[in-house]
Amino acid sequence: MAAGGWTFLTNHAHVLLVVRRDPHARLQDISAAVGITERAVQLILGDLESAGYVRRTRVGRRNEYLVLGGPLRHPLDQGQAVEDVLDALDDSPG
Questions:
Q1: Which Pfam families match (predicted)?
Q2: Quick check: 63 and 56 in contact, CB under 8 A?
Q3: pLDDT bracket for residue 6 (50, 70, 90)
Q4: 61 is in which domain, residue-wise?
């Protein structure tokens, strides 16, 4: 974590970035990447799924996550889309 104990992006944003980069990521993998517990990841994915930002599909014994996007929720962010933020932050090739 950054000095001072805070970061600019929320854990929700970090989880979205991880599953966008790796739709087959396990809770354990997401947890390690974001630096939060598996239970916190589970709750965040539930939030994101309930809000329509992520779709979870069962594939065998694992889950696959699809980031659906949509508008940002805060009034200051009106007119901005989740996809735009993720595109700006995503440094993965492709």
A1: HTH_24
A2: yes
A3: confident
A4: 11-89
Answer for the pair 44, 11: CB distance below 8 angstroms, yes or no: yes
Model confidence at 92, in pLDDT bands (50, 70, 90)? low
Please tell me the total count of domains within the chain. Answer: 1
Residues 11 and 34 sit within 8 Å (Cβ to Cβ): yes
> Three-class SS string for the chain?
CCCCCCCCCCHHHHHHHHHHHCCCCCHHHHHHHHCCCHHHHHHHHHHHHHCCCEEEEEECCEEEEEECCCECCCHHHCCCEHHHHHHHHCCCCC
Q: How far apart are CA 59 and CA 83, in angstroms?
A: 24
- 36 pLDDT band, cuts 50/70/90, is very high
Residue at 6 is within a domain: no
For residue 70, the domain's CATH number is: 1.10.10.10
